[in-house]
Design goal:
38% strand, mainly beta, 468 residues, binds CU-O-CU linkage, binds copper (II) ion
């Protein structure tokens, strides 16, 4: 059952204000004042709006420990990395090695999957590589791929949805020289947005139910752990690093028309060139690198990131009057090219594989972690065709490589502007057939193909394959 925003009871409203007030009191007076101000105005639209929190940044190449355990964020409680929902933003540069030791302080097994990184099989956090409660595992591998917006989350067999829904997720950014040369907004002008939904059960705890085919849907939007947060920003261009960390919900992001918004990149890094952003469908697992240009905005003006599917406001940027000393205070002019993307080409006689996503099976099979379904040759381009069936939409995710979307037939009938360049997750709506070209260059060994609607994944909508 879906509880519309409008029917939030006064009790829930007050409970939320109290929770949030307590968090604000710990965090500083300005936020608390905002809460009281909001509460006095009353009404749904003026519900207290928490400030957008920016997760701590940690250097993932410096041998850090990452603790999965109890966590909190935005007045909500659940499970988090280093106690935070979402977890810290991990960063590293191309050429460095990720070196992170996961410590499992949860009451059940977990693992970390580096979604978007080409990790060697033993470091990929696959369902068979679980870390027992009280245990630890050191993930250590070189990151040779180009800059990109990635994320990390648990992937233990049959428990992924529940753990992600309780709060375990964080952003993972890879940077490189190509990206640096573009001088995109950095520092305080770069904001992470970990989006998801949550179900308000009245106790401020993030939970999950296994609604296999439907997926678990929340009745509240959440950005960086808070409901409808506001970031107070100066009148300058901002780069938003967005990930859909919901278990099942597809967002239709819309940054409005008032200010220019540009799509810079997606799952696999920068696009060949920036594309003006209208509505963007972002399904679980997908990322969006978005530039919103607030240069020239007047104090008090707002840009909202809305979801047109649910009617929600996900997050708001509110312009302050503070003067901006940096280069991003001038209207952003997109460069002629953002990045070089090598187009994959299918040779005649290319290996062609078909995958039918139906119910919670792929080609009628459930996941069997001990028997890979097929073998792919490393370094060779293949064409994979994904077809949708009962239970759509299915966000289809491939481990171990990025792919290029070649064609979509049926449904939306075309490759969307944000699906150019490199992807690792592609949305398969009802009635669609999506062809992708994929080449596994990085590592040999076992990898996975699965639906990123995490309830589907946990129910077995996943295939193992081997790169040889
Ligand atoms: Cu983000 Cu195999 O998952
Ligand atoms: Cu992945
Ligand atoms: Cu699915």
């Amino acid at each position: 059952m879906r509880l519309p925003d409008e029917s939030l009871t006064r009790r829930v409203f007050l409970a939320r204000s109290a929770r949030w007030g307590a968090a604000a009191a710990l965090g500083g007076g300005g936020a608390l004042e905002g809460a009281l101000h909001g509460a006095r105005r009353g009404g749904r639209r003026d519900e207290p709006r928490p400030p957008l929190t920016v997760p701590t940044v940690r250097h993932a190449a410096s041998g850090i420990a990452l603790v999965a355990g109890q966590g909190a964020g935005g007045g909500w409680h659940g499970w988090g990395y280093d106690g935070a929902i979402p977890g810290p933003t991990l960063e590293l540069r191309r050429g460095e090695s990720l070196d992170v030791t996961l410590c499992n302080a949860l009451p059940e097994p977990t693992s970390v999957h580096w979604h978007g990184l080409h990790a060697p099989p033993g470091m990929d956090g696959q369902p068979m590589q679980q870390v027992a409660p009280g245990g630890a595992f050191r993930y250590l591998f070189p990151v040779a791929q180009r800059a990109g917006t990635h994320w990390y989350h648990p992937h233990p067999h049959g428990r992924t949805a529940g753990q992600v829904a309780r709060g375990l997720a964080g952003l993972l950014l890879v940077r490189d020289d190509e990206e640096d040369a573009l001088a995109l907004p950095r520092g305080a002008r770069e904001l992470p947005l970990v989006l998801r939904d949550a179900r308000d059960r009245g106790d401020g705890r993030l939970g999950h139910r296994r609604w296999w085919l439907l997926g678990y849907r929340g009745d509240l939007p959440m950005a960086n752990g808070a409901v409808r947060p506001v970031a107070r920003v100066p009148a300058a261009a901002h780069r938003l690093r967005v990930v859909n960390a919901a278990t099942a919900r597809v967002f239709r992001l819309y940054p409005g028309e008032r200010f220019p918004a540009w799509i810079l990149g997606n799952d696999g890094g920068l696009l060949p060139e920036a594309v003006r952003a209208g509505e963007v469908a972002l399904s679980p697992g997908e990322r969006l690198d978005l530039l919103v240009d607030l240069a020239g905005a007047r104090a008090g003006e707002r840009l909202t990131i809305a979801c047109r599917a649910s009617g929600w406001t996900l997050a708001t940027l509110e312009v302050t009057g503070e003067p901006v000393p940096d280069a991003w205070a001038r209207p952003w002019v997109p460069p002629a090219a953002l990045s070089h993307v090598e187009p994959l080409v299918a040779e005649p006689g290319v290996v062609h594989r078909e995958f039918h996503f139906f119910g919670h099976w792929i080609n009628g099979r459930g996941f069997d972690m001990h028997h890979p379904a097929f073998t792919v040759r490393r370094g060779v381009v293949e064409r994979w065709r994904f077809r949708s069936g009962l239970g759509s939409p299915h966000p289809v995710h491939v481990h171990g490589a990025h792919f290029q979307v070649e064609a979509r037939r049926g449904g939306r009938g075309r490759v969307m502007p944000w699906e150019r360049g490199w992807k690792d997750t592609v949305l398969l709506e009802g009635g669609e057939r999506v062809d992708v070209l994929v080449r596994f260059d990085a590592h040999a060994g076992p990898y996975l193909l699965h639906c990123h609607r995490l309830e589907h994944e946990d129910a077995g909508m996943m295939l193992g394959f081997v790169v040889a």
